[in-house]
Amino acid sequence: MGFTVQKNIRYYIWLIKGIFDRYSRIILASFALALILIVIGVRYGKFIWNRIENDRQIIGVVGSFTPSNLPISIQKLISLGLTEVSDTGEVLPALATSWEVSDDGKKYTFHLRTDQYWHDAKKFTAFDVNYNLRDVEFVPINETDLVVKLNDAFTPLPSFLSKALFRKGLIGLGAYKIAAIKLKGDDVSYLSLKPMVANLPQVEVKFYASEASAKTAFKLGEINVLDEIITPTPFTGWKNVKVKENVKLNQFVGIFLNNNDDLLKSKELRQGLNFALEKPEKNRIATPISSKSWAYTNRVKQYEKDLDQAKKLLSDYVESSKSATLTLSTFNEFLPLAQTVAAAWTSLGVTTQVKVETGVADNYQALLGVVDIPSDPDQYNLWHSTQTATNISHYASPKIDKLLESGRKESDQEKREKIYFDFQRYLVEDSPAVFLFHPTTYTISR
């Protein structure tokens, strides 16, 4: 048996030697190539992987969106508006190169670019502009000139025309076109975006009903970018994961006080509630206009925490309404903040309970939430007394009404700036809401 084993071993040695003698060059070349690939992999593997990842982004987005109301960030990838608005609120050319406005402010003439084509290669002209704005008429003069007629002067019009234009089928004019779209019922569940410009990555977008499900998808590797989530945990401590903070300058978090409520119609009480709170230093705002806007001013009443002043302003209420309870409504993401606010008010004798809502109800007393800030400082919809559907604090002031009406008709920016400075000063003095901060979201990427 030992002889047989030795014989077998000797046979395999001869066999291997024969193969090596015959194919030695190929074997040595293959070995050298493998060694080179290993060295390249060790030294440049991360770079190569990053290039692959950069050529394909799979983004997770939280929320329900139909094809007609995709997130603004995605709309801007797919198409352009006549204008675009900077972070400071300045209106800049986009599809329009320039525009003029008539002396009475009721007629705008836009001059359009001649080098733009839709994703199906059709040339963009003035006849393609399809905005649907109430009491606004769009009249193409020729392919490159467009007249916009209004019933009344409306200075914020150019900022409204920053909305991306689309043709049927979500055909756009931007750096990306839609290559594929999947729906789940009426909502979009998946988008594939193909770059129309060199050196841009392929983009896929997957939509998730909740932040928790989107985070699970990131953990499982289904997506490599998690866009604009509210809480970055547990990713802040992960290796090879980048956490980017996004300050939402186009939103503010505040507490809206129902001015129709028997309790909160008192200006002194609203001011007392305002003085009772410690305002966060991070991204703090003093007014409802974006802190980066050309129209923003900080020269208003600041409502720094002042317990003595708060007690003084709240004293009449505390003495006469010991058994009454104030309800602070909010949403899940703001529950911890709402509980802090409720504790501060309760400690001063204004017993406050927190109620978690799924939507905005008309009969709330105080509401803690986030509000979108218009790109133009015009805030007619939020604060004018006639805007019953959007003026959620039910605030009414003849002085504020007049300022808002004047601000949207005045074409001189210096005069507009003064109008909105006065608007902020008088509004904050009345304290129809407690203005807190710009919210922060986070983008998680590998």
TrEMBL record:
The chain crosses the membrane at residues 26-45. One of its GO terms (biological process) is peptide transport. The keyword Membrane applies. InterPro entries: Peptide/Ni-bd, SBP_5, SBP_5_dom. The keyword Membrane applies. Residues 90-135, 164-369 form the Solute-binding protein family domain. GO terms for molecular function: peptide transmembrane transporter activity. PANTHER family: OLIGOPEPTIDE-BINDING PROTEIN APPA, PERIPLASMIC BINDING COMPONENT OF ABC TRANSPORTER. This is Extracellular solute-binding protein family 5. The lineage of its organism: Bacteria, Candidatus Gottesmaniibacteriota.
